[in-house]
DNA sequence: CAGCCGTACTAAAGCGCTTTAGGCTGCTTC
DNA sequence: GAAGCAGCCTAAAGCGCTTTAGTACGGCTG
């Protein structure tokens, strides 16, 4: 029962060749579906390989120009910020699903900031480690697309804006603008006129898109008590900002939070301050998760299929690796799930 | 501004050799700190390499027997279970910190179950992809240690019990038993006699350890209204079990939840049923996170430094890769942070 | 001054795979 | 009946690195 210490050598193509009585090249042809071997030989080689439990060495493959069979994903977030965030694991989970199918590995790294992230790309590229990368949290004035383009590393930007300037980059994006517009429309219909958007990290492309759209929608309707305030996504800042805006002379009647964590913290804070949700103030969370059904009132939230988002991104990347053209694909607009935290504005 | 399509060839040792006017082997010696070159040559080679931006190709390195400079981590959880869980990203974050220092990559994969996980290990091993792995969520009767031992793949088990049977495996573990004992002791001191433990996944080593300890502590004190109920860690099951136990004739006065998500769901459920926390029922969460301070009452929780846990594990693995002996190291016992959700038992 | 040794370096093989350039059959074609 | 041509297969080079074996040279010894 205690396992024996067997050195357990991995079989190589040479072993297969010997056992099958053919040359190594024949084995290579056979196993890769290339012409140059008869069907019966091919089958025999396949059987031997199978029986020996052979798997190609990625190192050797990579070295002979086939690529590393690996894609990279780096997360640039200060370590403590990535605590309670369902988004990433879900996304990764979706990504994996399609990568696993193709036997592609996922090299994962978390770093502090974007410059570090760029350094990682350079290193991965120089070390031949990855065939392509998935870029998350695109920013306004992002240096990463230029870098990846320069390195010739295929990439798909997740959540970016459509980008025609970079030939090797695909983009998978959600229509934040449309979602924001529909949320504002809904709140407006409920009588809300003073709306505060507790946004995420300033500089993130989607944050800025949401802010711009909110502003535009407000202007279009002649609303003046509308603003966006950026945060670091943490519950602490979410609570602090909530406290601040509710403490003002003319507090907002609706709050839009850029993630579920802040929304939760916001509701708790509002309640503490004596505001009743949704009677005094409506709350909507941008990002749905179990959290939203874990407090009363249940949070109305913008929901989207994050795993599917990941799957789509991974598909685009594999397409790129197969030599396909860069594309821009839009995933469905997040839908607003109305639960208990939104209601008519007081006095409307 | 639109990036130019430069093929951007990676420099190789041959390039360095040419520029420095020495042989490739000299370059190798110089760059790897091996004897056989003079100091001045070594320095010259280093400068040329630097200036060319050279980085060793991991593929080539791996092929010539140096290992893949990569460690693996696979997460065996049904995709939807890993939603709201701060634990993993934190752990990974800590792991990365020490891996990055040594320029080791982290190959990451999420799969459905343990058999799939084993298949991944076999594949990684056969494909020469990783030099070692980190194993999480050890189980009772776990097939993984035997497998890894057989493959000769260095590994550290995170959260396992000490294990002397496997020579290549290190273990990093937290003293769940001690923590459980202290929690029970605290609750007992507050007058609690009927305690229910809403546990995590049955079959996980630490789940079983906690359950065993709880039972032992109860017996020692002659308590009869004490039990553990296993769940899938989800808020849904947490809520369901809470509802069930509180609905009984003699409901418990204290609840111990194996994660923060279930604890939160539990508090919400209890409140809904008309139980006041902590007046009617005390709640403690096993695993502290921002969540615990996001609802009122704030949750008392067992807190530990998860990033540090990850760091420790990664250190052990690098030690193993350096040829060190397998070890068993214990991380600090989780500390109970008393917040608002625990109090004296009613009538005590 | 032959013989020896240590230092600084080079040549070449090998890791496991892909791929190009042949080689050898046996068949058609004029 | 010789040239041409498939079809099937092998030999060998090459990917970028490490490592072993070997060479050249200067200085030491006896």
From TrEMBL, chains A, B:
PROSITE patterns: HTH_LACI_1, HTH_LACI_2
GO molecular function: DNA-binding transcription factor activity; transcription cis-regulatory region binding
Domain annotation HTH lacI-type: ranges: 11-65
Organism domain of life: Bacteria
One Pfam family, short name: Peripla_BP_3
SMART domains for the chain: HTH_LACI
Keywords: DNA-binding, Transcription, Transcription regulation
UniProt-recorded name of the protein: LacI family transcriptional regulator
Species the sequence originates in: Streptomyces griseofuscus
Lineage: Bacteria, Bacillati, Actinomycetota, Actinomycetes, Kitasatosporales
